[in-house]
Amino acid sequence: MSKTIGVLDVQGAVREHLLALGVLGVIAVSVKKAEDFDALDGLIIPGGESTAIGRLIREQGLEDRLRSFHKEGKAIFGTCAGLILCSTDESHETDDLRLGFIDMEVERNGFGRQIASFETSLDFAGIDQPVEAVFIRAPYIQSVGPDVKVLATYDDKIVAAEHENVLVTAYHPELTEDYAVLNYFLDKIY
Ligand code: GLN
Q1: Are 168 and 111 contacting, i.e. CB atoms less than 8 angstroms apart?
Q2: Which end of the chain is more exposed for a tag (fewer CB within 10 A), N or C?
Q3: Does the active-site annotation cover 80?
Q4: Is this prediction's pTM over 0.85?
Q5: Topology of the domain comprising 4-187
């Protein structure tokens, strides 16, 4: 049976993820309401603007359902702003939402403004070929807890990691035709 993967649809690169998932032959659905989570095998929290996504998650009453989905052990993939939302990031000084799904501290917009957006290829643990990665005002991961597995670095900065059912990348995997990392996520599901 095909896997059903949801893309959290409050702000950001939702359509791009739905299109990429469609190419991979899974059932891809937009997730706007708490009840939309019930049918899912996995969820992608897309890139976009983490402050806006966090605010909309709260306003639309989705925070509890996101947390219970995580507790159920369902697969979650946070990309770029989605990575920021999955972090613990205890040192951040705002009350922006942090779900704490992965024990890691992040540096928002960590690659600076001059090179805010760029494309590169990265070695990724568990994937044989280098993967294409598009960074757009991307964060990087400053530090990870002892149980977190680092999957990729760029310029000595951690840009992909996983812990149990949660995978995060600082870049957008859905904006290239290299689907290796999305497939890596789908392989986590069964
Ligand atoms: N800079 C954005 C943030 O801090 C993330 C950018 C992205 O998701 N492409 O939320």
Answers
A1: no
A2: N
A3: yes
A4: yes
A5: Rossmann fold (3.40.50)
What would the DSSP string read from start to end of 98-140? Answer: ---SS-EEEETTTT-STT-EEEEEEEETTEEEEEEEEEES--E
Rounded to the nearest angstrom, the distance between the alpha carbon of 138 and the centre of ligand 1 is 6
Whole-angstrom distance, CA of residue 161 vs CA of residue 72: 20
pLDDT attached to residue 49? 96
Q: Residues in the chain, how many?
A: 190
What's the confidence (pLDDT) of residue 92? 63
**What pLDDT was estimated at residue 116?**
78
136 within 8 A of 13, measured Cβ to Cβ: no
What is the residue-averaged pLDDT of the chain?
A: 95
- Determine the distance separating the centroid of ligand 1 and the alpha carbon of 110, expressed in angstroms: 10
86 is catalytic: no
Are the C-beta atoms of 101 and 73 separated by less than 8 Å? no
What are the residue ranges spanned by the domains of the chain? 4-187
Q: Is 96 in the pocket of ligand 1 (CB under 6 A)?
A: no
